[in-house]
Amino acid sequence: MMSPIPEWMDNAACRGEQRAWFFPPASLERKDERLRREARAKAVCADCAVRATCLDWALANHEAFGIWGGLNEAERRVMGAA
Is the pTM of this model over 0.90? Predict the structure, then answer.
């Protein structure tokens, strides 16, 4: 059974058309494309009211993909190891 969507997600700045920026595409992307996509996503996160909650949730749930709380997968792994 899937858990319900957390309420804080209703207030996330990433809701809407730009949500595709937060996850890698199904096909391969070049490094420069990934960096541009991630930069756009992180810019949305910068002004998000629930950024800290989002990051906490991603760390607690071991989110393996995407930008959560303004951090990508590698950046979250570093935080999780700390």
Answer: no
Asked if the model's pLDDT at residue 82 lies above 90, the reply is no
Contact 48, 14 (CB under 8 A): yes
Domain segments of the chain as ranges: 9-81
pLDDT of residue 81: 62
How many Å apart are CA 12 and CA 38, to the nearest integer?
17
Q: Is 53 left (phi over 0), alpha (psi -120 to 50) or beta?
A: alpha
Q: What is the pLDDT of residues 31-53, one digit of tens each?
A: 999 999 999 999 999 999 999 99
> 8, 49 in Cβ contact below 8 A?
no
From the number of C-beta atoms within 10 Å of its C-beta (0-12, 13-18, 19+), residue 4 rates as exposed
The rounded distance, in Å, linking the Cα atoms of 10 and 41 is 17
